[in-house]
Design goal:
Layout: E1 6-9, E2 12-15, H1 19-30, E3 35-38, H2 43-47, E4 54-56, H3 57-64, H4 71-75, E5 77-79, E6 81-86, E7 89-94, H5 95-99, E8 103-105, H6 108-121, E9 125-127, E10 131-136, E11 144-148, E12 154-158, E13 161-164, E14 182-187, E15 191-197, E16 207-210, E17 216-220, E18 226-232, H7 243-254, E19 267-273, E20 276-281, E21 284-285, E22 288-290, E23 296-297, H8 305-326, H9 330-357, H10 365-379, H11 382-393
Parallel strand pairs: 1-12, 2-3, 2-13, 3-9, 6-16, 13-22
Antiparallel strand pairs: 4-8, 5-8, 6-7, 10-11, 11-12, 14-20, 15-18, 15-19, 16-17, 17-18, 20-23, 21-22
Helix pairs in contact: 1-6, 1-8, 8-9
Bound molecules: 3,4-dihydroxybenzoic acid.
């Protein structure tokens, strides 16, 4: 270990090199704003982090129009609708007809791969596998980020602005003193059992299925690889389940008079995903700004996590750019309030569809029937369908 601490000055120090941190770094570099990204994990670990597969149109535009990579357009698939399925009957929501938007199916892990490659291509300064990260002096004009790099060298970054994009387990939000921070949190009494299977798609679009046996989501990755989930107990161990048991469980949740039959194949991955909702308020402390999962977590239903992170990053980038271009801090000062507006809308949407589509052990007959009424309200009303479609495809940015 080299005892000497090396000092680096830069404009923006980015703590966290997942999709949010790399996207911010990419946008800043394009605008000529110096930045450094540090990340505790290595490339492979981040690549193997589970992420959902649906991108809002705004997320796709951020990638394709800023020159990250065109792969999202060539290898992703445009989806113009989804099926809401209950009582064994599918109801298609046609997003193009309802709100004139589409979503894109593209594994979000690929976005990390594309962004990391783009940062490398463009000479970005991204340091993976760092340890002992600390942020300090956030309320001063010279905030600090300290870390040890993969070779054991200790560094201190002295940026103007710190971006906290270090995910739900990161350190940045904890640097906001407890008395200045509100942690809004709820847990759910269920989780998702997720699989990847080498099989053809079972349906042209995604199916969100509510059934008396619990929720199932029939999603896709490409022509040969499909992603599916079913509601399970949070304590479930994936290794306790044989492939036959998994297929039987998924199938009974989509069974119906139309005879929908899932196309089976070898299951190549299985995992249990926890459910929680969290929002840190405010999303700023001094000269540190939180973005993405570092500031909020949503349950996976509706795939809002990464989309919301990119929406934060766009607002933060605009504010930082204005700070350097005009000297005005008006946008930085409005950052937390502005992003929290969308964050809470997304929290509500994710919570709403989660509670509507999942079943609970202690559910009363009244509650079960009320939810049928709610589902019927959506599918039988153009207004109901539009409300769902607008949220799912992503609200226009203000
Ligand atoms: C996927 C995950 C989601 O949570 C969702 O709502 C849609 C798709 C997915 O992994 O494909």
């Amino acid at each position: 270990m080299n005892a000497e601490v090396r000092i680096i000055t830069t404009q923006v120090g980015i703590v966290g090199g997942g999709p949010a941190g790399l996207m911010l770094s990419h946008l800043l570099s394009r605008a000529g704003i110096e930045n450094i990204v540090i990340e505790t994990r290595d490339h492979e670990t981040i690549r193997n982090t589970h992420r959902a597969g649906i991108l809002e149109a705004g997320t796709v535009r951020m990638l394709s129009e800023t020159g990250v990579d065109g792969r999202v357009l060539t290898e992703g698939h445009r989806h113009d609708g989804v099926d809401l399925r209950f009582n064994g009957t599918s109801h298609r929501l046609d997003f193009q007809d309802l709100v004139g938007e589409s979503v894109w199916l593209y594994g979000q892990t690929e976005i990390f791969v594309d962004l990391a490659a783009a940062r490398k291509r463009d000479g970005g300064d991204v340091r993976f596998s760092v340890t002992d990260t600390e942020v300090a002096d956030l309320e001063t004009d010279v905030p600090k980020i300290r870390f040890t790099d993969a070779n054991g060298q200790r560094f201190e970054i002295r940026p103007d602005i710190v971006a906290g994009t270090d995910g739900s387990k990161g350190i940045c939000k904890h640097a906001i003193p407890k008395e200045k921070r509100t942690d809004n949190f709820i847990a759910y009494p269920f989780a998702w059992f997720g699989i990847l299977t080498e099989a053809p798609a079972s349906a042209p679009e995604l199916i969100y299925a509510q059934s008396e046996h619990g929720f199932a989501l029939i999603s896709q990755r490409n022509e040969h690889l499909q992603r599916m989930y079913f509601q399970c107990d949070p304590e479930e161990n994936p290794d306790d389940w044989s492939d036959d048991q998994i297929w039987a469980e998924l199938q009974r949740r989509v069974d119906g008079p139309d005879g929908l039959t899932l196309k089976r194949g070898p299951i190549t991955e299985k995992m249990v995903l926890p459910f929680r909702s969290y929002v840190c308020e405010p999303m700023r402390h001094g000269n540190m700004f939180l973005a993405g999962d570092a500031g909020h977590t949503v349950p996976p239903t509706g795939a809002k996590g990464l989309n919301l992170a990119f929406a934060d990053v766009q607002v933060l980038f605009d504010a930082i750019e204005a700070h350097y271009a005009t000297g005005s801090d008006e946008l930085l000062d409005g950052y937390s309030e502005k992003v929290l507006d969308r964050v809470w809308k997304a929290q509500n949407f994710s919570y709403w569809i989660t509670t509507m589509l999942h079943s609970r052990q202690d559910q009363s007959t009244f509650e079960r029937k009320r939810i049928q009424g709610e589902l019927n309200n959506i599918v039988s009303s153009r207004f109901g369908q539009q409300y769902f479609a607008e949220a799912y495809t992503g609200w226009p940015s203000a």
